């Protein structure tokens, strides 16, 4: 290996390692912030939380890898340009393509490794993280009580909460039905407000009620029915519920194994083909059913001959031979058949729309196996020439520029992916649209860097970048 290659690789490796771990750290913090309501206050062990973070970091890894490639390539070429090392290499007759050759080889290896990670390991991590998240959500049933709905997740009790303050945890307009005696709705407790909490040993749910009363319908002796009942008024009362089945119960992963994010390329292809055949078969069956229901078919005598003409009749002339009552019966039956056909078509259309959405999800995931790893190469084609043009090392300016490029790519990807999920765009065109938008930018920057032409920037751009860089602690 030539010393020039070693110089370029050293300039790239250090920023890449720093950028990758920094990006992973930021993405994990963002992920935890989004999932904070699912994890905090459920009595989970730290081992379970770290396990969930580890499984969920698979998708974050596929986001951090291209972003770190973009940021490190800008930093590496910016450092070489700022110290005039890039200028010296070009003066020696070495083109920018030859300078970037070793980095391109390394990034291609990243892309290949990212593909195998996305195809073989990521589905397993997605399955584990989805299953564990489902188990975590089942850990605290009291947090699943929704406003204005009856909740029966606690054995022998039904609870209704009129209003709930998410910040303070205050429950208002509480209604509790006690079915523990097995005799129906004989015990009812109503309270103006209250709080829920878990006991220290995590085995009991304690409900503290304020300003309410309880109604108990008493058992009556044989004979005349007098409907006896008891009313107890209270200002403060604590009700304790035993949390049966305490502990994080692990769900079988087979419950989610058929989702698109849990499959590799071969499985995605097989499921997509199966769903397509299912939709085609359903469409053919629906067409035949509608054809038969509408009575637009050949007569029995016409079916025996391929050359016979279709049987024709005049419906109006036949209808005129019937009396008024018969005409009304015929019209009513025709209207019933038309409504049945309409309802059947609506139902089948809804099923086919759902299947089409599943096909789109599988096709999106199939193409994402390629677009994710290839984005590493794409961002190198954008970042390296851009760094050579900017000629600014450090962290401030490269961070701002890489963030702008990445947000353009990410927002475009998410926008068209949403259109594909809603069957408004073809998945192939939608998933590759972000690449189609970013690739011309990379080609433009590569041309400018190879021909040593600077890009016309708006007035005050460098001053703003300098201030932002100083704010972020970058070297300017």
Main β-sheet, in a few words?
Answer: 6 strands, antiparallel
Shape: flat
Helical residue percent band: 55-70%
Order of helices and strands: HHHHHEEEEEEHHHHHHH
Number of domains: 3
N-end to C-end Cα span: 32 Å
The strand line-up of the biggest sheet is 1-2-3-4-5-6
Tell me what the structure shows.
- The protein is an alpha+beta fold and about 475 residues long.
- The protein folds into 3 domains: about 5-140 and about 365-470, no CATH class; about 145-240, no CATH class; about 260-305 and about 310-360.
- It has 12 helices and 6 strands.
- The chain has a 6-stranded antiparallel beta sheet with strand order 1-2-3-4-5-6, with no helix packed on it.
- A hairpin with a 5-residue loop joins strand 1 and strand 2.
- Helix 5 (about 95-135) crosses helix 8.
